[in-house]
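STRUCTURE:
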């Protein structure tokens, strides 16, 4: 690089002096230096492979002028905090849906606009994933035509491992291989913690991490963030402790990859249920965030196949969700339970299960009614009538008949409304 400035350099200079000479040369005029894939210069523990790189950046921070440096790296480099006013790190998000679609189309990928946007969303808009997929779709030995539907038809495992292309001299590069290389640099304990944390949907703090591993520390979470396997989110409002100040989350693509690395997530989901139940607060509630522990516990119970327990988790929240107008959330919750029964994964073997199912169908119909989706409300209340016609479930029968009458009334079908209301 110094040769480009026509500067004669004594090759016997020690590295620290050579770094200073380079910084001074680069500071002679305004300039921009871009260093891509900086993680390739790091060892597994995050230290520099060659000390001269660390010397160069320290010299630049303390003596550099006129020069702006842009670094890209999958692993964050530790720089001295006493000069933090001279540098900042930013998490690079993916491309927007429009930009991602434009990239695919520029590379010759065809498909409906909605399909192209859907694929961009699946890969978080990551340019590398889009480029690898485009190359794979354009390969006539892999696909009949370069249409994005061929990629949409594949599952996550295929997208991570089988869609390959050329990246940094690796003709068989894949998103799975690239992410896997970062994961393999973790210690066994840190890798297990990262995998288990992937069951959390919202951002989480150290307390949630300790629910997965009692020995977890903030340093563990910061290390995962440094390697771009988590994203750190400092809390803006004033808090009392460091544990409260920092929250962490997964990017969707990395989260799905992490979950693929575990054969059985049941233990992690069970630990998540216990954690969220430990953070619940009693009614009355004022905001949706007040019941978020119940909603998250529901999610993990559902993933465990504990459908009756999932219903019982949100049952105390029904009136709050109804009266506060959170009907779309009600709809999504009860939809999941009814769908599990319809797909025959929720087997109704006990009276408690039957009551939970009937109540879920009733509340699903009520949710549709509150959202003015009257045909769907009528459909599920009729389903409730069919399921209770041969027994003495007069409560559910009466509720279903009354709700069907109300749905017809809301549609202006007064004859049907009167008929069902009379029944």
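SEQUENCE:
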């Amino acid at each position: 690089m110094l040769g480009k400035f026509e500067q004669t350099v004594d090759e016997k200079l020690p590295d620290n002096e050579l770094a200073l000479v380079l910084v001074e040369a680069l500071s002679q005029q305004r300039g921009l230096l871009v260093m891509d894939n900086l993680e390739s210069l790091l060892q597994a523990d995050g230290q520099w492979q060659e000390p001269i790189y660390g010397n160069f950046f320290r010299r630049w921070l303390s003596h550099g002028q006129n020069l702006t440096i842009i670094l890209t790296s999958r692993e964050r480099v530790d720089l001295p905090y006493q000069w933090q006013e001279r540098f900042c790190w930013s998490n690079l998000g993916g491309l927007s849906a429009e930009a991602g679609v434009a990239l695919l189309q520029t590379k010759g990928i065809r498909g409906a606009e909605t399909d192209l946007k859907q694929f961009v969303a699946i890969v978080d808009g990551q340019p590398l994933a889009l480029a690898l997929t485009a190359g794979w779709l354009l390969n006539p030995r892999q696909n009949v035509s370069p249409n994005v539907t061929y990629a949409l038809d594949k599952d996550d495992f295929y997208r991570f491992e089988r869609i390959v292309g050329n990246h940094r001299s690796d003709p068989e590069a894949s998103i799975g291989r690239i992410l896997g290389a970062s994961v393999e640099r973790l210690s066994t304990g840190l890798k297990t913690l990262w995998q288990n944390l992937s069951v959390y949907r919202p951002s989480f703090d150290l307390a949630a991490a300790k629910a997965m591993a009692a020995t977890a520390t903030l340093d563990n979470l910061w290390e995962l963030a440094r390697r771009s396997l988590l994203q750190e989110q400092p809390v803006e409002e004033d808090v009392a402790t460091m544990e409260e100040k920092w929250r962490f989350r997964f990017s969707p693509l990395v989260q799905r990859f992490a979950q693929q690395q575990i054969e059985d997530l049941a233990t992690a989901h069970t630990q998540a249920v216990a954690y969220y139940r430990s953070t619940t607060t009693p009614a009355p509630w004022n905001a949706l965030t007040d019941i978020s522990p119940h909603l998250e516990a529901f999610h993990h119970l559902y993933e465990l196949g504990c459908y009756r327990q999932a219903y019982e988790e949100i049952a105390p929240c029904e009136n709050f969700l109804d009266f506060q107008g959170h009907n779309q959330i009600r709809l999504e919750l009860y939809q999941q339970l009814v769908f599990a029964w319809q797909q025959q994964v929720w087997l109704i073997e006990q009276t408690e299960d039957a009551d939970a199912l009937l109540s879920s169908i009733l509340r699903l119909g009520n949710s549709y009614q509150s959202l003015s989706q009257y045909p769907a409300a009528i459909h599920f209340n009729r389903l409730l009538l069919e399921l209770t016609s041969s027994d003495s479930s007069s409560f559910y029968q009466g509720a279903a008949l009354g709700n069907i009458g109300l749905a017809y009334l809301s549609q202006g079908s007064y004859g049907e409304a009167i008929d069902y209301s009379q029944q």
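REMARK: The first strand starts at residue 31 and ends at 35.
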